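Homework help thread (please don't just give me the answer)

Our assignment gives two proteins as sequence + structure token strings and asks us to describe the second one. The first is just a warm-up. Here they are:
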Amino acid sequence: MFSNKLSNEEPILKSIFKLSEISLTQINDQSKLKKIILEQHKKYLAVILDLQICSNDDLSFWKQLLDLSPLPILIFSADSSKIYHDIQQQKATIHLAKPITDFCRYIHNEKEEKQRPVDVLEYIQLTKEVFFNITGHCIGKDSRCTPLSSTEFKLLFLLVRNRGKIFSSHELLDQLDLPGLATLYVHIQNIRSKIEKNPHDPQILINHRGRGYLVKIEDIE
């Protein structure tokens, strides 16, 4: 941590980091900080600039560090009169940035999902007479293979992969990115017409009233 104001008091940040069991090194010399960044950066997690009285020289120094440092650089003011203001400002920034961070997390998860090896069978036996052909995107029943639409496949695959877990209607809407409940119910009816012996008395794709939907797979010896 670099501070542009010498003080005999223990910096607020130092007290905070003590609670987190993270070691904080205080530096009050710009040239020494530059040397550490260039030669010893692997020993540190980040650089924190405690700019209690921010001058043009401090801003120029900060810009130099941005060009030099392979470490993230954080700016903080330990001026006790500004602590509440800074905390509120940081909370507001986090709140406003949430849609962006959520989107980045979604992209990251999608990338991880694509890189993860597929650990599923080519087909899953739902009952003795019905099987879910995963590679063929269809339902095998009565010696015929009935194709599933893209959304029907995603819905059934989600429930089969999480067999025994109940998904609420709104969770399914979010997972499948559907426009509304009416659309979801149509897809559920279509799937039941393809997998159930009697779609009006479903035994595979089951609804627990007030809770949601799940797939029940018959034990086959």
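The one we have to describe:
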Amino acid sequence: MLHKIYLLPLLSLLVSLSSQACNIDIYANGDMKPKVYLEAGKPAGILIEMLLFVEKDIGCKFNFKFSTWARAYKSMLNGEGAVIGLSKTTSREKLIDYSDAMYIEDILLVTHINNAFQYSEINDLAGKTVASSRGANIGDEFEHAVESKLFTFMVDNGDMSKRLERVAKGRVDVAIVSPGKYAFDNAFIKHPELLEIKDQLYIVPTVFRKDPNFLGFSKKYEHQGFMEKLNRSMEKGRQSGIFQAIEDKYHQRQQ
């Protein structure tokens, strides 16, 4: 009986320590509807709901921290936690441990209606001025095109409305827009004063890239088997249909 009396507090302590051990800061660009954003002051979006499922499933505590993409990415590289909404490139894989893919988003190209073009390959951007968020990297092909100066690459702080305004005013040839048409439409919902320029913009009909999004840690971060637990839990979410239901819910809001 004495053994049982002493054993119960010990088990409670071990459970408590175990739950405290899995306490992870998750960094993200907080203005990426429908993937990640704030709704009534609380984290929301497809990736957030997926991680809330994982949090409950594996008994982990996630602390969501939103900022610009550049700051979120830097925090991850500094070993302060994980980042979500991450694209994969060969150069990044040298620095980052990646989860399995969480979500696949459409990345679009937007240009001025007077400069409309069709897209079939990266060389179609040759000689143009292309704008995207600071720190953005959309796969190996895009990275190589930037390095070879196939086009002039301009970065901004992630303000989609400002990026689209620059296209309308002829200061930039092409804006990278993601996630999908939702990001394009949401820019005008947030800034209705820009509606007068909307008909000057042309969304290139061919999707520029179907981009898998990942969770990633800097290789200097000691995540102690967390990634394996995360991947198993995400597979459970996919196989059960829970993740598909999450995606469907947010995609229906866009219609």
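TA reply:
I won't write it for you, but here's a hint about the kind of observation we're looking for: Residues 106-210 form a domain with the D-Maltodextrin-Binding Protein; domain 2 fold (CATH 3.40.190.10).
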